[in-house]
Amino acid sequence: MKKIGLGLVLIISALLLGFNAYQMIMLAVWGVPSAQQHYLAFYASLLLLIAGIITMILFNAGRIVALIALLGMGVMYIPASAFLVPAHNSIVTPMAWILMLLYFVSLASVLILRPRFKINIPVFFLLALVSVGFAGEQFYDRWQDGEYQRPSLFTYKWTPSNSDLQVDIGEEYFSDSLIDQLNDHGINGQLMIEGVTGNEHATHKVFVICQSEPVLPKKLYYPKDNYLVYLYDGEKWSTFPHGAQTYDSYAMLETSSKSSYIKQKTDGGETFSLAFSWN
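Predicted structure:
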C-alpha cells in the first residue's frame, strides 16, 4: 500500500509540476525569455513520472530516482517561494501555493518515509530553509523599497492669484502644517484636483501640484514619512518638506499629447493612470 500511495503522489506531482514548467517555457511564444531552470524542471518532471511508476514496483529504487528528479526540479521550485511574497496590488493565486506545497510534500515523502538514512531529515529541512530564505530575501527587498507603503498620488492644477489658498476637493488631506508650507512657498490661489492614483486613504500621500504642463518626465519618489509635495511652477520643480526621506522606488510623471500620466511599476509590468489634461 505504501508503494502505491507514494507512487501516486509522485505521478500527480510530476504531471502538475511538469505542466507548470511547460507553461513557463511556452511563454516564449509571447516573447517572454525562457530560463534554463524551466527546461531542467520540465525534463526532471518526466523523470519523476518514471520514478512514480518504478516506486510502485521497486520502492527503494523508485525513491532514489525520484530524489534525483526532485533535486533537478528544485532549481525552479525552491527559489519559486519568492513569488509567493505578495506585492502591491497583486494577488498570489491559490495554484501557486498548491504547486509549492505539492513539491515539498513529494520531497518529504521521498526523504522521510522509512527506510531512510539519518541525513535525510536534515537534508529536507535544509532545502526547506533555503526556500524560506528566498522568500525572506524577497520580502526584505520589497519592504526596503517601500513596496508595502505605496502612497496615493493626488494631482492638482495650480492657478495663482492674490487670494488665500483654496483646495476644491481633498482639502481634508491637507494638514495645517502642509498648508503653512504651501503658503511659505508662495502657493496661493486655487488648487483644482485632476486625479487620484492609488488608495486615497493610504497613510502615505504624494501631492503633485503643477502650474503648467511639465516638459520633461519627473520621477516621483515615494515618501517614508506621511506626505511629500512635488511642485512645478512652470519653470522648475521643487520638493518639500526639504530633506524628506524617500524610498528608492518611484512613480514617473510623463506628458504626451496634451495629457500627463503617472506610470508605476508592478509585478505584472506597468500601470498608467491619467494625472493631468492640458488645453
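Summary: The chain has six helices and ten strands.
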